[in-house]
Amino acid sequence: MKIAIDPGHGMSNRQSGIYDPGATHVENGFRHEEATIALKYGLILKDVFRAKGHEVFMTRDDAEDHAPVGMRAKNAKNAGCDVFISIHLNDFDDDAANGQEVLYRDSDDKLFAQNLQNALLAITGFKDRSIKKREDLAVLKFQGPSALIELGFIANDSNRETLLNPQKRNAICGAIAEVTVAQFGS
Ligand SMILES: [Zn+2]
Fold first, then answer.
1. What's the mean pLDDT when you consider all of the chain?
2. Per-residue pLDDT, 96
3. Whether 159 contacts 94, CB under 8 Å
4. CATH number at residue 122
5. Residue 68, Cα to own-chain centre: how many angstroms?
6. pLDDT in tens, 66-90
7. 72: CA distance to ligand 1 center in Å?
8. pLDDT tens digits for 87-102?
9. What separation in Å is there between the alpha carbon of 131 and the centre of ligand 1?
10. Where is the MurNAc-LAA domain (predicted)?
11. CA of 54 to the centre of ligand 1 (A)
């Protein structure tokens, strides 16, 4: 199996040649950026899948990678990927907003989304914002199974601290890989 991992945002995401940090939140003078956290998750997830003997295609590997969001699903297909996983953090004006959700496009992917949702909630204990069908997202235009995970809210202290915790991060990446392999097999 070959898995496409899409760490949300980054270079050329919204505008060509301009870095898009995604959602941001400043805490004690430190600026947390969605794109950086998503990349960290993506790179760990890559290692987890490879350790399980699967191939991985990264839509971006770092903060310089010029992969426009509109091309990411297509690039993944061209790379021969079987499944597409996009990693994001959520944002809302109200810092109290919290919880996790998984977005999917095709009805066929509903079970995959729900299984991801359940597995991650078991680790984080976050509020269940439920899975949501979204047909409008560019990255979900991948021809094949796909899901976009909104891990939690960057501005919510409890969500962010959990997601920045290395043990939780490893457990979350392990669970994403486990669900994906169980669902789509070898
Ligand atoms: Zn995002």
1. 94
2. 86
3. no
4. 3.40.630.40
5. 16
6. 777 788 999 999 999 999 999 999 9
7. 14
8. 999 988 788 899 999 9
9. 16
10. 73-181
11. 26
> What percent of the chain shows pLDDT beyond 70?
99
166 vs 186: CA distance, rounded Å:
28
What spacing in Å lies between the alpha carbon of 186 and ligand 1's midpoint?
Answer: 29
Q: What is the number of structural domains in the chain?
A: 1
Q: In a 3-state reduction of DSSP, which class is residue 174?
A: helix
Closest C-alpha among 125, 84, 82 to residue 103: 84
For residue 170, the enclosing domain spans 2-184
**Rounded CA gap, 163 and 146, in Å?**
22
**Which residues neighbour 78 within 8 Å (Cβ) at sequence distance 6 or greater?**
none
CA of 16 relative to ligand 1 center, distance in Å: 17
Neighbours of ion ligand 1 (CB under 5 A): 8, 22, 88
Cα 36 to Cα 182: distance, rounded to the nearest angstrom: 28
